[in-house]
Amino acid sequence: MNNKSKWMTFLCSLSLLVSCSPQKEQPKGSLLLCHEDEITEIIGQMTLEEKVNMLHGKNMFSSAGVERLGIPDIEYADGPFGIREEMEPHSWNSLGLANDSSTFFPTGSALAATWSEEMAYEYGKGMAKEARLRGKDMILGPAINIQRIPTGGRTYEYLSEDPQLSAALSVKYTQGVQDNGVAVCLKHYALNNQENDRGSIDVKVSPRAMHELYLPPFEAAVKEADAYGVMAAYNKVEGYWCSENDMLLNKILRDMWGFHGIVISDWGGVHSTVGAAMNGLDVEMPGERYMGQALLDSVKAGVVPEEVIDSKVRNLLRVRFAIQPIAKEDANKVMTAQPEQRDIAYKVASKSIVMLKNEGELLPILPNKYKKIAVIGDNAIRQQAQGGVGAGVKALKEVTPLEGIQNKLNNFEIKWAQGYYNYTREDRYKNISPYQKADKELMAEAVQLAKESDLVLFIAGNNREVETEGSDRTCITLPMGQDELAQALAEANPNLVTILVSGAPTDLRVVNEVSPAILVSWFNGSEGGNALADVLSGAIVPSGKLPFTYPIQLEDNQAYSLKVYPQVTEEEKEDIFVNLVNQKDGRQRKSPTANYSEGIFVGYRWFESKQIPVAYPFGHGLSYTTFDYSDLQLETTKQGIQATLQLTNTGKYDAEEVVQFYIGRPNSQVERPLKELKAFQRVSLKAGESKPVQIFIPRERFRHWDEIDKGWKIESGKADVYVGSSSQDIRLTGSTNI
Ligand code: BGC
User: Fold this and answer.
1) Is 297 a catalytic residue?
2) Active-site residue among 266, 439, 507, 534?
3) Is there an atom of ligand 1 within 6 Å of 187 CB?
4) Does ligand 1 come within 6 angstroms of the Cβ of 78?
5) CA-CA to 506 of 20 to 30 Å: which in 67, 226, 448, 620?
6) Could you check whether the bond before residue 188 is cis, i.e. omega within 30 degrees of 0?
7) pLDDT (tens digit per residue) in 544-555
8) DSSP codes, 548-600
9) How does pLDDT run across 208-255, given as a tens digit for each residue?
10) Ligand 1 mutation target, pool 78, 188, 283, most atoms within 8 A of CB
């Protein structure tokens, strides 16, 4: 058979998929289990060399199929907030193609700020559509680790500090991707909650915190959305690298959750051949240092049984069968970025913007309210699709805040001043800190403009060089002297609206004092500037809610307060460095330990339990309208709690509200946070409209991890229900018995 007809045979067998429903005895109803017999047959035809050849990177972003049998390679698309451009086969250099610019979707914390499962699904769908145009099979995303510290370098990429919000959105993102013909790769499994020392850190965490907080987004996406791929994180957990961690990969992921897909390593995150092969890793990416010849030798020497190799090949073939391959000549025919996806990016961005405060109703900017508007700040003109280390998007288009304001607020006289210095990649490379005094010249120019204007829009925040993969921020202060600048601007003009362009919390003590209105507008994708301008003008009523807490100061965060982060002092860093130099293999550096001593008290769970005041609580976000909550009714059955309430829009704008349901267990025998998010719903209401809101909280969500019996338990007894507009703005309470 020639290659083409082999390919056709393979494709024909794939068409079985359409009518496939998994056989009865197969658990979880996974679509991955539709072709077990054919897969057995294919494996039977393969040589050992062909099998091992599938278990490592072929190129930077692909792993090999078997040409002889017509099995196509697997093509990976770096994500999670836009399909990365094509790279040279063995380097991080761009290929410089003309057609591979894609849509830049709002980054993770922005998506989470929508608190919208519908938006998460659309987002996944949009990502999949663009991945298909590029011939990709698996998206390296969503990135769903819990935001444990506000300084975490990838906070902007991750979703939330809360497991329920993260889990719900991970499920929908996964379904959106996989329903549209592409596989997800959930990352970074697991406990990759900091970037400093990510390649050496050993995380020590209680099983309870691990199961209740850090794993649920992964668990939900596997169990509820049949995720096809998982990426093993760089770090160690309880002494073992995530890429060779029997507990995480075999016992939890496969045995407990019933995962049937592939586990790939993070790029360069493999540390041994036998360890990785025997403990659950399927594919080493992007090279073959450990799972190429060395793996072949280990099988031949009888150290790694061939059945282990077969089961990895089976996992790969399951994914291969579930995802329709695209022939190389059919990929990249049209531009990756398409208008439908730009619409999705706009919708997500417009629902993600969080209004932290709006004193004196400075906003919205109604037609005759002001004449001259000053837009101040380097971030007003900065694109955020790329920057820092790691995943960047070669965006076809990115509307900056200034462009959006100029597009949409064109009846006003708009002038811009830079205000503060642009912190660049070169600065980062030279180890120049972003935490500098204000630039006097830029400040003077901005102050002058503020004086001459009726309203000041201060576009502040971080940029993608400040928040970056590979390292954590050293503090959460606003960079480049922005606090000093904000004070000077407020003195010049008290009508100061601060807009934070960032993906993570910042210290707002100064800005809060001087700025009557504050918005968070994130790294908000291709349409970020337009969405911001629509919120400023009132065309869109803000409805985003914080997916994390804004602490008053960094030291209030649980890991800082308990002094378990940062783990490595400057002297210890020296020590590690010496250690590294003295080792023959530079990879065997000493592992600092990350003790998650706070246990289950992360984010708002910590602040509430310790009664530490916060700047803005988890779930907070104001609107131009007001909502009234009334008539909470609770009905409890064996299946869970059915909650009903009446929600009324009592203001003048059509708007959306996110109703949040928290549960407290006052008489629990185990230690618990005061309350925990268990469900939420985004509701749309016309001005003056009133609607019943119904939400079901399944009984399963009341489970806790029992450390003694090493399993889930549901404690019967009293449950307090708190329904609110944020974790601290509780409008209705009730109680029931579980
Ligand atoms: C990141 C992954 C990413 C991979 C490929 C790694 O450094 O941690 O999230 O998908 O690189 O770019």
Assistant:
1) no
2) 266
3) yes
4) yes
5) 448
6) yes
7) 999 999 999 999
8) S-EESSGGGSHHHHTT-SS---HHHHHHHHHHHHHSSSTT-PPPPEEE-TTTT
9) 999 999 999 999 999 999 999 999 999 999 999 999 999 999 999 999
10) 78
